[in-house]
Design goal:
There is one protein chain. This protein has two domains: 11-241, Aspartate Aminotransferase, domain 2 (3-Layer(aba) Sandwich); 243-364, Alpha-Beta Complex (Aspartate Aminotransferase, domain 1). The chain is 38% helix and 16% strand. The mean pLDDT is 96. The chain is an alpha/beta fold. 48% of the residues are buried. The chain has a seven-stranded mixed beta sheet with strand order 1-9-8-5-4-2-3, sandwiched between helices. Helix 5 links the parallel strand 4 (120-126) and strand 5.
Length: 365
């Protein structure tokens, strides 16, 4: 089976984890946590990086840190992973779903303004599959309506918009280091901001709301235990050492697919867009309709090729119970397939996947 994704694990990973265990600092204290946060800021050029247990925790902390509260409204695309929107519900705020841009797969920024009202407090923009949302347009809306911008960078580590790393444009940003992300800590996440006040609150929220200046067990706000372990951070440090290599490999993987998958009326290979340098978290193809998509998925699986569908539109989930018709989000959810894209995939495996896709469409034609 050619897997959809396997993490890149170097020899330094084992070395760091072993050192961590030998030090006896295996929980949320230890040298690797601070080191990982510092190296992450150095890589992304975002001033403050606060490590957390996972990407969902990161989004929850991010929303709390900018003051989102019960009754507020937060604009978010329907076409994204559910962890982008669920933390809005945790707080008691309301997600307002927006359609996507069919060319970029990102939040359709031109459909936001008509959804803004007096209760709107923030816009979450997930940068999907390594691409980045039109941040220029979003920042104009932020200024005009005095809104917060939250960047969900779970899929855009190593991606750049106008030569600036994702996560640098909004008030706060979040990253995920799950096993299938560009860099991984097994489970883990990061809250990032260039605002010192927001960073201070994020750190306090992730550590049970403790006010250490008063007493090590004095808590003056409700906080959470969202801390990253030293072991996870040890993995993260080694991943950052290899980050440029991993990103370069993933861009080459995309190019190999692009050079081999035949363009035809049934299929579109998703590419980076204007002003973006993508890390190509996953290689995505969009099919003409859902019937062809289902047949291709089955055909590839029968040839021992693992794929994954694109995201199920959130507004259609029973937990959100929306009757809206968001045409593009629904189309993308029905017709997208993610191809094997992990850094260690071999050229012969990419060739085989591409060959099978082309053979499938030869039969369809």
């Amino acid at each position: 089976m050619i897997s959809l994704y396997n993490p890149y694990i170097s020899k330094n990973t084992l070395k760091n984890v072993t050192n961590c265990i030998k030090s006896n600092w295996i929980s949320s204290k230890g040298l690797y946590v601070k080191k990982f946060e510092k190296l992450f800021s150095n890589f992304t050029k975002i001033k403050y990086s606060i490590s957390v247990a996972n990407g969902t925790c990161a989004m929850h902390i991010a929303l709390l840190s900018i003051g989102i509260k019960k009754g507020d409204q937060v604009i978010v695309p329907s076409f994204t992973y559910v962890a982008t929107a669920n933390p809005i519900k945790y707080i008691g705020a309301k997600p307002i779903f927006i359609d996507s841009n069919s060319e970029t797969l990102q939040l359709d920024v031109k459909k936001i303004e008509k959804k803004i009202n007096s209760k709107t407090k923030a816009i979450i923009c997930p940068h999907l599959y390594g691409n980045i949302t039109n941040m220029e347009y979003l920042l104009k809306l932020k200024k005009k309506y005095k809104l917060f911008i939250v960047e969900d960078c779970a899929e855009s580590f190593g991606s750049y918009y106008k030569k600036k790393h994702s996560g640098n444009f909004g008030d706060i940003s979040t990253f995920s280091f799950y096993g299938n992300k560009t860099i991984t800590t097994g489970e883990g996440g990061m809250v990032c901001t260039n605002n010192k006040k927001i960073a201070k609150l994020a750190l306090k929220l992730k550590t049970q709301g403790v006010a250490t200046r008063i007493h090590p067990y004095y808590h003056d706000i409700v906080g959470y235990n969202y801390r990253m372990t030293n072991i996870c951070a040890a993995i993260g440090v080694s991943q950052l050492e290899d980050a440029k290599y991993i990103i370069n490999k993933k861009r080459k993987i995309f190019i190999k697919y692009k050079n081999q998958i035949l363009n035809n009326k049934f299929i579109r290979l998703f590419e980076e867009t204007t002003n973006v340098r993508s890390s190509y978290w996953l290689v995505v193809i969009i099919l003409k309709n859902k019937n062809i998509k289902k047949k291709l998925e089955k055909y590839l699986l029968n040839n021992n090729i693992e794929t994954r569908p694109t995201f199920y539109p959130l507004h259609k989930l029973p937990i959100y119970n929306s009757n809206e018709k968001l045409v593009v989000a629904e189309k993308l959810g029905e017709c997208g397939i993610c191809l094997p894209s992990y850094p260690g995939i071999k050229t012969k495996e990419i060739n085989f996947v591409s060959k099978k896709i082309n053979q499938f469409f030869d039969e369809v034609r």
